[in-house]
Amino acid sequence: MIKKHYAIPVALLALVTVGGATAYAATTPNMAPFASFSAAQQTAIEQAFTIRQDARTKAQDVLDAAGVTPGAMRTAMNTYRSNQRTAIDAALTANDYAAFQALVANSPMASELTQDVFAKLVEIHKLEVSGDHAGAAALRKELTDAGIHGLGIGHMGGRGMMMGGHGFGPDNDNDGA
Q: What's the domain range around 124?
């Protein structure tokens, strides 16, 4: 009977130990990939992880205080992207380089989106719209081979500039869109 008296405290200690370890693991990085790093480097990684976690928490607190929900942010971004895709399609259809430049002005790719690249994008757009997906793919490959990346022209299954507009990305489901 004496053993039963010790069983409850031992079980509680086990729960606290396991629970604490789980909580600790959720707030610290898995250091196994960094086993070959020096102790100072591992300490720096752990500090950086903590800083990042604290910043995420603070950022979420700011958003929560302002009443900004993740859903509202997602909807706003999706709407913006959709409007951008529509405007880019219109610029390509109209062969309007000035409008295109204005739309991509804040893009990290802006400096690479020359008039020559734009001309190829217009041609890709025309080929896609006409159903010549093989021709469009060949031009997309030319751009990619020339070092023009990040346009949604064949990476990450993108279907256009900013992963959704017509005329740039691969037609993975062969629906012509």
A: 72-145
Q: Which has more confidence, 1 or 113?
A: 113
User: What is the value of pTM for the model shown?
Assistant: 0.56
Residues near 3 by Cβ (< 8 Å), separated by ≥ 6? none
Say yes or no: 53 and 83 in one domain. no
pLDDT digits (tens, 9 = 90+) for 27-58: 567 888 999 999 999 999 999 999 999 999 99
How far is the C-alpha of 18 from the C-alpha of 12, rounded, in Å? 10
Residue 163 lies in a domain: no
Q: Are 165 and 85 in contact (CB under 8 A)?
A: yes
Q: Yes or no: say if 150 and 108 are a contact pair by the CB < 8 Å rule.
A: yes
* 83 and 116 within one domain: yes
CB 29 within 8 A of CB 45: yes
Instruction: For residues 48 and 111, state if they share a domain.
Output: no
Structural domains in the chain (count): 2
